[in-house]
What does this fold into?
Amino acid sequence: MSTHTNDYFSASSGMVSETSSEVSSINSSQRVSFSKASIAAPVPCSDLHSTKSNDASRKLSISRKLTNRLNDIKKAVDDDNLQTEENSADVNKILESRFDVADAIRLQHNESVQSKLNIPVTHTTTAGASLSAPSSSASSASSIQNDTTEHKASMDSKLMRNRLYPASTKHSGKDLEAQGITEFEPDEPTVKRVFTNKSTGQLELPPDGGYGWVVTFCVFLTMFSTWGCNASFGVDLAYYLNHDTYPGASKYDYALIAGLTVFLGQLLSPLVMALMRIIGLRTTMLFGDVVMLAAYLLASFTTKLWQLYVTQGFMVGCSISLIFVPATTVLPGWFLKKRAVAMGVSLLGTGAGGVVYGLATNKMLSDFGNTRWCLRIIGISCSISVLVAIALLKERNPTPAIGLRSPRAMFEQLKAMFSLKVITKPFVVLIALWFMFAFFAYNMMVFTLSSYAISKGLSSHDASTLTAILNGSQSIGRPLMGLAGDKFGRANVTIVLTTLLTIYMFAFWIPAHTFVQLIFFSILVGSCVGVANVMNTVLIADMVKPEEFLPAWAFVNYCGAPFLLVCEVIAQALTVEKDKSNPYLHAQIFCGCCFIAALILISILREYSIRMKLTERQAMTNEKLKEWKASEYDTDSADEDWGKLKERKTKYDLLLGPGIKKYFLRMVYPMKV
It folds into this structure.
């Protein structure tokens, strides 16, 4: 390999040191030229011109070296991004990168059905090829289980599987059993394991459209009526804090009610998912709708604080989880390639609901002078919109409910959902901690903004307008986050947005005192503050195997839920009412620190993701190099490919080297991941 090629791969690690040494040499030469001897005697003009010429040439040399290093780094990054783009047309890769809870449920169901059939296992060498003769049932099942475990533990085997079994829809309409595939093999692509209809034996991929857009609108309605409506609680909180609605209640009581709804919405998500598998999707959502209507109606008649805890806190939180969790499992059955677009449209409901219910709540509070009719109208409107969504919602390939007659099956569902093996995987814990800090800061900022505006002398109308603007910006920002994550990399976009949020907390929120300043702050923050809600599921999909997705998703949800319970309580505890200039300063600083912690965690997670991706490509490159060495190629194109492979090998050996410098080099390596 040429010297230029070696310089290419030492670019990232040697650029700074070489540049600094060059600069140091220039400085030292300049210091020598101004010695006592040179001062004592005049310097000839020719020597002055020569010194200036040497300095200029050295500076030009440094500039050229820096330019070459940057070009080489860009070439290396472009090569990695090109490899990522080459997999963008692979249906199996698309599914694994956008794996969702519904896919995990369907995969679990298909494998459960297959295990009950207890069909003798045979093996294939290519997808759709004929299989060898079956062996005995018991020994075969044990052998396959061991082979599967060993296969998944081997990175090289996984790489070879992706090469030998590319996801293809060429035979999607053929009967799989007629092709000899009677059971999911260890080498079976995930797309076949998820979307194979066990009743027909056919591979049925999502249509990416059609009635799926109606389903998208239904999910939009559920998000609009659950999390969107709950986002307007900041207006209620400001009203409770400024009016003696419930005698004897402190600001911590109202803050705890605000945290209770978010706490239950996250904590109960895994339990609701298991309940949905037992009693069915529509039954779960209808039960949640009844609980929601009862919660708001009963809350309008409350006269004591504990009654408000039970209704607007506990019952509303339970109803949110019972409604929105089942609804989100329907979309993945209708969309695969356009899943990010459909998810983004459905997430518009959260921001739109916050805008509509935030302004409506403030208007009703000012007209009625209390929360009674406000709560009744909100409860009736939300329950009706959820009923419309349930009526139009349709599962493309519904997974049959287990029912209440089989306690063992019910226990298996809970066991699969709450498997603690995922705790042993450090990256799952990292995702959970990142989500906890980011979501904690998000809730603290959203629920505090309205109260902060009132403390600065603004009216309740202005405060509710800020909340509406914030939620409206979220309705635009959340879909764009998903699309940007698919294009530029989920971890990359998450780091950029978390960095911006950290800057906004310290540089924009703290100095903002006027209504106009807070408007701009609400627009900027609202466009990126929902990053935790959008990215948590897809980051889990990027890091874990499909079989481990459900327990990992459940762990991320219930791990940080207790901290969300006391989120607004902490914000109120940090409030200094005697500080008239800015009573919420400590809460603002704490919120910014939470985003800093989230930024550090997502950076560590990005390094792990890059290391995992580069390790995979390094193994693939080494495998291809072995093939090249075992073969003879004389064409120019073959020589060109050989040179590219050697360049990749050198690059991956450099980036995956040991040491703290290489660790931070991987963390900032600007590839799509």
